[in-house]
């Protein structure tokens, strides 16, 4: 079974500052990792995903994440945030086998202020 | 721009009433997921289907919840009878059914049971 831990429930940051949202996973087999974003009153949408190859993955809206197998982490970063990045961010891991079920973390609320 | 659609967007009902939520997956997607999101529990997977057949409904309270796919363009989630603790946002997502695939979320149905 897989699990995902997002240690920070809320991250406040000023506009134009860098941000890192942390994600750690637990799995006994190789995994695929995802970051989704949920803007207020909307469904989730994919930011980026790690499948294989380069451990640095670039996504939409200037976000990137780095897969670290030894630390079982997949932290999300952005060098300079905007007010419009205020949202809930979810890290997720795919299940093993042939199913496409995702296990989501509890989410991190990114609050960007002026 | 293909999207997952959900109806209704909002539903207020009284305890004991039947509630039916509908989802139209993206055309060509063969996998449909139902999630429930609450402040306390976060994002929970209730059930999912592949090629209209239920693959996993272990997250769903069996005594009152039921999920079906009458055809490839419609998925339904029914609660009968509804209870106040069912108040939540219910999301439908669709995908192509592989572990690496993106899940595309609908805008959700916000259910309030009084």
Keywords, separated by commas or semicolons:
heterodimer; A: 114 residues; mainly beta; 4-stranded antiparallel sheet; 0% helix; globular; B: 114 residues; 7-stranded mixed sheet; 11 strands
Instruction: Report low-confidence residues of chain B grouped into runs of 5 or more.
Output: none
- Could you tell me the mean pLDDT of chain A? 92
Order of helices and strands of chain B: EEEEEEEEEEE
Low-confidence stretches of chain A: none
What would the average pLDDT of chain B be, to the nearest integer? 94
Structural class of chain A: mainly beta
Taking all Cα atoms into account, the compactness measure Rg of chain B is 13 Å
Q: Beta-sheet strand percentage of chain B?
A: over 45%
Structure, explained:
- The complex is a heterodimer of chains A (114) and B (114).
- Helices cover 0% and strands 51% of the residues of chain A.
- Chain A is mainly beta.
- In chain A, strands 2, 5, 6, 10, 11 and 12 form a six-stranded mixed β-sheet that branches. Chain A has a four-stranded antiparallel β-sheet with strand order 3-9-8-7, with no helix packed on it.
- Chain A is globular and about 45 Å long.
- Chain A starts with a strand and ends with a strand.
- The model of chain A has no long low-confidence stretch (mean pLDDT 92).
- The mean pLDDT of chain B is 94.
- With 114 residues, chain B is mostly beta strands.
- In chain B, strands 2, 4, 5, 6, 9, 10 and 11 form a seven-stranded mixed β-sheet that branches. Chain B has a four-stranded antiparallel β-sheet with strand order 1-3-8-7, with no helix packed on it.
- The A-B interface holds A 32, 34, 36, 41-46, 49, 51, 90, 94-95, 98-102, 104, 106-107 and B 4, 31, 33, 42-43, 45, 48, 55-56, 91, 93, 95-108.
């Amino acid at each position: 079974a897989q699990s995902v831990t997002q240690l920070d429930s809320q991250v406040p940051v000023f506009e134009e500052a860098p941000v890192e949202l942390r994600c750690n996973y637990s799995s006994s087999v190789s995994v695929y990792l995802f970051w989704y974003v949920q803007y207020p009153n909307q469904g989730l949408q994919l930011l980026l995903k790690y499948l294989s190859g380069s451990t640095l993955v670039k996504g939409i809206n200037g976000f990137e994440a780095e897969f670290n197998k030894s630390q079982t982490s997949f932290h999300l970063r952005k060098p300079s945030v905007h007010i419009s990045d205020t949202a809930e961010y979810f890290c997720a891991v795919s299940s093993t086998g042939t199913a496409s079920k995702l296990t989501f973390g509890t989410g991190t609320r990114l609050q960007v202020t002026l | 721009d293909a999207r997952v659609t959900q109806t209704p967007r909002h539903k207020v009902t009284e305890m004991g009433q039947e509630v039916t939520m509908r989802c139209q997956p993206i055309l060509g997607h063969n996998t449909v997921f139902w999630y429930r999101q609450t402040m306390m529990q976060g994002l929970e997977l209730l059930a999912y289907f592949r090629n209209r057949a239920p693959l996993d409904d272990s997250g769903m309270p069996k005594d009152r919840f039921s999920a079906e796919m009458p055809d490839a363009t419609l998925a339904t989630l029914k609660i009968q009878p509804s209870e106040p603790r069912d108040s939540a946002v219910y999301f439908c997502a669709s995908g192509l059914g592989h572990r690496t695939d993106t899940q595309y979320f609908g805008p959700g149905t916000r259910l309030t049971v009084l």
